[in-house]
Amino acid sequence: MTWRQAFGEVVRSGLKIEETRLEPLLALRAAAGLAIVVGAALWLASPAYAASAALGAYSAGGATFQRSWRPRKVVALGTGVALALSTFVGYLAAGRLVTFLPLLALWAFAAGMAWAVGSTAGIIAATTVGSMLVTITLPTSAGRALEHAGVIALGGVIQAMLILLFPIRRWGAHRDALADALAAVADYARRLRHDPTAPFDPAPLMTARDAAAVTPSQARTRPPALHGPRGLAERIRPVIAALADPAVGAPAEGPGRDRARELLDAAADVLDAAARSIRHGTPAEVRPETMDALRVDEEHEVLEGPARQAAERLVELLGEALEIAGSGCPPGRTPMPRGPAGAEFLERPTMLRLVPVVVRAVRRELRPDSPVFRHAVRLAAVATLGYLIAARLPLGHGYWAPLASVLVMRPDFHRTYARAVARLAGTVAGVALATGVVRALDPDPYVSGALTVLAAGVSYTLNRTGYAYTQCFTAAYVVFLLGMGGQAWEQTVPERVVLTLLGGALAMLAYLVFPAWETPRLQGRLADWLAANGRYAAAVLRDYAEPTREHHADMRRALLGSREAHAAWQEAYDRARREPVRPRGLTSREAEEAQDALKGFGRAAMLMESHLPRADGRSVPEAERFAEALETDTAKAAVAVRERRNPDWGRVEEALHAWQDAAAGNGSPVVRREAELQKRALEDLATAVSRTPLERDVGSAREDQRVRATLAAAGDGSPRAHRDG
């Protein structure tokens, strides 16, 4: 992308309205927690204490809307404690710049490194930096600082208590994650009816697996239906893909294809019914026509060979899904899946055991080329620089500038710039709205407190519609909050707009000075995905060559590794397409061709998985040798791709020829067919990435010419131009 295109995309993303499901009951509960602490502080103490209490309650309530698989009350309580700690420690060092600035830089750096654990940890950690910047101006002594810290922590405690006393959709996020995974496989089945080689995005399955990891205490209270169906979706996906594929499943035309479409439609209906059952905790009905389609008539079944095997396996798996979808459980409860009561579960570490996990995650990111490390350095630099600049300006509330920077900054270019645009737009709209309300009502502290709670409640409600719209009411909330403390709107409104603009500009400038572009790292991400796909395909072949429990476990681990590498590539690829950086190593067309080749390679391995024999199957040594060659060549090819050398598939070709020569009676011809498709996909990958340095320079020049020609034809800034760029 050019800079002009990138800025256009940034503005559109920053102001985009996200079409997500609102959660007004959760917003009402969080706003009630804010109302309790603000009202109590105004009645029993002073507006200054009310401001501290509002900070803790508002931030703790907002944290519960972040994506986290831990209980919301734990998130709220942890946020309140972290805010209180940052407030007290910040005040102890706030007397002199020589002590406060190093503390602020260190705290901001640690907050940036929190992204190594996850986005939720990073966002909550950023709010603690904001707390340090804001609330150190309120207390007048160490004792008062401790009191303010206690009041802030109390806000988190109140939010946690309300969550405990008034639960809303227990396990709701976990139910949604599992239901989304089943619904994604159902949608995949419907798309396969019309496109037998349709792609599948494994992200819902990865999210469902992440949600399935629970602590021992959560495992004791988790609804049984949240344990088994995820594995069911995993097993159904390769079976429906094998059934739909004309090369290894149903024929491309004729009665066999019609029967395959009928089974795929039935699979989609059953999976959708199971998804509804799990999402709402109630039984679901399946259409009678679907039940009829799932009856396999031994005499009149038109499918034959591998297609019939896939159909029978699909009917068997859908029978398990029907037990979930058609269970007669009473409302509010979920059906018990098959398996022993004490079945194993994916374990999530408790808060105490999380410490070494966090340390390891942070240690992995402590390297100069890490986006998380670079984000932490930018955050520390901008927080301290913004604080110094704002302190020199003839404006009050100078902390708003570094606060705006800290809250909009993210580890990648696009989200940082989009949030900066959204924050400025939301702040201008919010302060304009709040100014009109204040001028019309001239509220006293209690009315200002009520307006504060109202603005916060609307902000919570719009939490998932887009940052600009949430920020609009957050800005109004701040104006009302300061008005409750006696600050006139004539002072706060211009200051907030100017300082927010300054903070956003600092955040943007910091990324330009010390960027973490994804474009130069695409080649490494592609190499990681290639190596992971090779390990997965080799593990499938070993399980086919000699079916054992150990080989099956290895295959499952390799599949998860392949998905993680694919997700890392996809995230890097999407970010790179939005960056105003010229292609380095891979042009956009080469990256797209390599991506398609690796998707085809992974799909062939998935189809192999659907034809794995039973545990008592016979050994196929040729498949074992092909697996060894495949893993060796893909590992070496990954190194070659990373070093911009041409990959070589000599061992794969020799092993495949040996398998074909010894084909008589040695394994399934369908699996050998998939092995040939894998080799073809690897050759397509080599074609995409194998170029001499001169050819690469010519390719980059042609890429630039193609983009300019597209822009000239479609008009600069059009959606088509953005896709091609």
From TrEMBL:
The lineage of its organism: Bacteria, Bacillati, Actinomycetota, Actinomycetes, Kitasatosporales. Belongs to the YccS/YhfK family. Its main location: membrane. The keyword Transmembrane applies. The chain crosses the membrane at residues 26-45, 74-94, 106-129, 149-168, 420-438, 468-485, 497-517. GO terms for cellular component: plasma membrane. InterPro entries: Memb_transporter_dom (IPR049453), YccS_N (IPR032692). PANTHER family: MULTIDRUG RESISTANCE PROTEIN MDTO, P-HYDROXYBENZOIC ACID EFFLUX PUMP SUBUNIT-RELATED. It is found in: Cell membrane. Residues 79-189 form the Integral membrane protein YccS N-terminal domain. This is FUSC family protein. Pfam families: FUSC-like, FUSC_2. The keyword Cell membrane applies.
